[in-house]
Design goal:
The termini are far apart. The strands form two sheets. A nine-stranded mixed beta sheet has the order 14-13-12-11-7-10-9-8-15. The protein has a six-stranded parallel beta sheet with strand order 3-2-1-4-5-6, sandwiched between helices. The chain has helices at 14-26, 39-49, 57-62, 78-87, 102-115, 129-139, 178-193, 280-294, 302-321, and strands spanning 5-10, 29-35, 52-53, 68-71, 91-95, 119-122, 146-154, 196-204, 215-222, 227-232, 239-246, 249-254, 259-264, 271-273, 325-326. The longest helix is centred in the last third of the chain and has 20 residues, at 302-321. The protein has two domains: 5-124 and 281-300, NAD(P)-binding Rossmann-like Domain (Rossmann fold); 126-277 and 310-329, Dihydrodipicolinate Reductase, domain 2 (2-Layer Sandwich). The protein is α/β, with parallel strands linked by helices and 331 residues long.
Length: 331
C-alpha cells in the first residue's frame, strides 16, 4: 500500500493481530510498525504481519511515517497510552472500553482535544447490519414504544489455560466479563435508545476457580424511558444476543448478529429476516483511516467512549455497594 494510512500498533496479543488483519482488509490502512514490552513478542508479531518491530514506545511515536496508532493493551493502560500517543501528534484508535472510569476517559479525551488528533474507540458491535436494522425499526416507530432491552454476551474463555493473565485479573476485568464482552452490549444499547440514567448490578464469583467474577447481571434505566438488562460471563458457552421489546413488536439480533428476527404484536411467533453480515472491525478501522485522510469525527469517539465508561464504573460501584448508581453522579 502506498497511498493508505500508515499505522503503528501497541499491544501484540490476540486482538492486536485481529486489528492488524482488519487494517489490511479495510483497504485503507496497514500496520507498518508494532511495539510491546516483550522483545520476543514484538519480533514474532512483526514477522507474522510483515511490519517493523519498534525497539521502544518512543521509537514508534517518533516514526515519521506513522499517521495513527492502534492501542490494544490491558484496560487500565489505555488512558496513559492515549495521552502519550496524542502528545506525539498521532491519531489514536483505542480498543474498548476507552477506560474503566469516567475520570480516566475524560483525561484521554482532553489529551486528544489539546493535540487536535482523532480519538476513536473500538465499539464495533453497533456496526452490524442487524443492529442497524433494529435502529431503523426504532426510529421509524415500527416497534411502537420501546419498553425493554435485553442482551447477553458471554463465552467460555476463562476455562482455557491460555487466557491472558491480565484478563483474569479483577483490576483489569472488574465485574467479570463486563470490560471484555459486556461493554459491547452497553454501547449497542446506548446506540439504540440513548444514554443511561441509573444502573444496578450484581456480580459474583460462584465457582471460585479464578479471581474474576463468573456471573454478572445488570439493570439499566435509560433517560429516554426504557429499561434494560444484560448478562455476561467468561465461564459459559458462547452467547451473543440483543433483543428490543416494544408495544407493537420485538426484534432479536442473535448469533453475533448473523440472524435477525422480528415479531409484530399480532403475530404468534417471530419471523426470521434476511440480513447481511459485515466485518465490523475492518469497517471501523476503515472509518479511522478515512477520518485521518479527510477529517471528520468517528462514530464512536470520546463522547461515546465516556458514556460506556460511566456505565462500567457504575456497574462496579453498584456491585460493590448493593445500591443503584445515578449516572449523573459520575458524569
Amino acid at each position: 500500500m502506498t497511498d493508505g494510512v500508515q499505522l503503528g500498533l501497541v499491544g501484540v496479543g490476540w486482538w492486536g493481530g485481529v486489528l492488524a488483519n482488519a487494517a489490511k482488509e479495510s483497504g485503507r490502512a496497514e500496520v507498518v510498525t508494532c511495539f510491546s514490552r516483550s522483545p520476543e513478542g514484538r519480533e514474532t508479531f512483526a514477522r507474522e504481519h510483515r511490519c517493523k518491530a519498534a525497539p521502544s514506545m518512543e521509537a514508534l511515536l517518533e516514526d515519521a511515517v506513522v499517521d495513527g496508532v492502534l492501542v490494544a493493551t490491558p484496560h487500565t493502560t489505555h488512558a496513559d497510552l492515549v495521552e502519550r500517543v496524542a502528545e506525539a501528534g498521532k491519531h489514536v484508535f483505542v480498543e474498548k472500553p476507552l477506560t474503566l472510569t469516567v475520570a480516566d476517559a475524560r483525561r484521554a479525551i482532553r489529551a486528544c482535544d489539546r493535540a487536535g488528533v482523532i480519538l476513536q474507540v473500538g465499539h464495533n458491535a453497533r456496526r452490524h447490519p442487524a443492529i442497524r436494522r433494529i435502529k431503523q425499526l426504532v426510529e421509524a416507530e415500527e416497534l411502537g414504544v420501546v419498553l425493554q432491552l435485553e442482551g447477553n454476551r458471554s463465552g467460555p474463555a476463562a476455562h482455557l489455560p491460555t487466557l491472558a493473565p491480565w484478563r483474569a485479573d479483577p483490576a483489569e476485568s472488574p465485574a467479570g466479563g463486563m470490560a471484555a464482552m459486556g461493554t459491547h452490549i452497553v454501547d449497542t444499547f446506548n446506540f439504540l435508545v440513548g444514554p443511561a440514567r441509573r444502573v444496578s448490578a450484581f456480580s459474583a464469583n460462584v465457582l471460585d476457580v479464578r479471581a474474576i467474577d463468573d456471573a454478572t447481571t445488570v439493570l439499566i434505566e435509560y433517560e429516554s424511558g426504557p429499561l434494560g438488562y444484560l448478562g455476561t460471563s467468561y465461564f459459559v458457552p458462547v452467547t451473543n444476543m440483543i433483543c428490543m421489546y416494544g408495544t407493537d413488536g420485538a426484534a432479536w439480533s442473535e448469533q453475533d448478529a448473523t440472524r435477525l428476527f422480528i415479531q409484530k404484536r399480532a403475530d404468534s411467533t417471530r419471523i426470521e429476516q434476511a440480513v447481511e453480515t459485515l466485518d465490523t472491525v475492518a469497517d471501523e478501522i476503515g472509518e479511522f483511516a478515512l477520518c485521518i485522510q479527510e477529517g471528520g469525527a468517528p462514530e464512536t469517539g470520546g463522547p461515546e467512549g465516556v458514556e460506556v465508561a460511566a456505565v462500567m464504573e457504575a456497574i462496579v460501584r453498584s456491585a460493590e455497594t448493593g445500591c443503584a448508581v445515578e449516572l449523573s453522579d459520575l458524569r
